[in-house]
Automatic annotation (TrEMBL):
Keywords in alphabetical order: Hydrolase
Name recorded for this polypeptide: MBL fold metallo-hydrolase
Domain of life of the source: Bacteria
GO MF: hydrolase activity
Gene3D superfamilies per the UniProt record, alphabetical: Ribonuclease Z/Hydroxyacylglutathione hydrolase-like
Domain Metallo-beta-lactamase, chain residue ranges per copy: 16-214
Cited SMART domains: Lactamase_B (SM00849)
UniProt cross-references to Pfam families, sorted A to Z: Lactamase_B
Length: 252
């Protein structure tokens, strides 16, 4: 199978919120932006010379409104099934992310006050339920879905055969993408230590680049150095009992 090409689709700003178009034998879309973004995503797919009705699958990386907000609309516009992890079925079926959000820092505390973050999206029922690592060859691309829990219980990433990792909110650029190339936490994590473990597990697979939901692509070596510092910081917070974490029972 031919190598999979990763094409960013800006949903908000130049890099603030990204979806991605994966090009192989057939196209696959990763993430669907905020509510009302379906038409914009469809038009950008077409601008890259792809018939939106040729899209074989829409992969949603997790149950936050800036990633699944237009999934139901994009499903109608393309006819493609939606894939999502079973652990985030609650948000998908209700149209609401689990709350309260657990901020990772000042940006998250500020954003948690925004009414837009608490909007309800159109509910959806994923046609492809992800429970574990899932090969996407049948959908026309050389790639696989990788469970990467921690940001949410059902967070997933997509790893292509040539090493591009479409990572959702596993990691981000600083200030929601405003500082390009600088690794940082996204504004929220349900379980920061679990998310960091998922990130380090993906880095152990030697990806060539990390394509994130907020910001420009990140270089793996720079992310590794950041992850080592972040591990030390989180370990200190956890030892002091100052690390907010959503419990497993809350996440179900």
């Amino acid at each position: 199978m031919s190598p999979t090409k990763v094409v960013p689709i800006p949903v908000m700003g130049r890099h603030s919120i990204n979806a991605y178009l994966l090009l192989g034998r057939r196209p696959v879309v990763v993430d669907a932006g905020t509510p009302g973004s379906g038409g914009r995503i469809r038009d950008q797919i077409a601008a890259h010379g792809v018939d939106p009705t040729d899209v074989s699958l829409i992969v949603i990386t997790h149950g936050h409104i800036d990633h699944f907000g237009s999934a139901a609309e994009l499903h109608r516009l393309t006819g493609a099934p939606v894939a999502g992890h079973i652990a985030d079925l609650g948000p998908y079926r209700s149209g609401r992310a689990r709350e309260p959000y657990l901020p990772t820092g000042p940006m998250g505390r500020l954003m948690a006050r925004s009414r837009k973050l608490h909007l309800k999206a159109e509910p959806l029922e994923p046609g492809v339920l992800v429970r574990g690592e899932t090969d996407l060859e049948d959908f026309g691309i050389d790639a696989r879905i990788m469970p990467t829990p921690g940001h949410t219980a059902g967070s997933i990433s997509v790893l292509t055969g040539r090493g591009d990792l479409v990572a959702g909110d596993l990691v981000a650029n600083s200030f929601m993408g405003l500082v390009p190339g600088r690794p940082a936490n996204p504004p929220f994590h349900d379980d920061p230590l679990h998310n960091l473990a998922s990130l380090r597990r993906m880095l152990d697979l030697d990806p060539t680049r990390l394509h994130v939901g907020h910001g420009t692509p990140l270089e793996p070596d720079r992310v590794r150095r950041w992850a080592a510092r972040e591990h030390r910081r989180l370990t200190r917070l956890a030892a002091a009992g100052r690390l907010p974490t959503r419990t497993e029972t809350e996440a179900v």
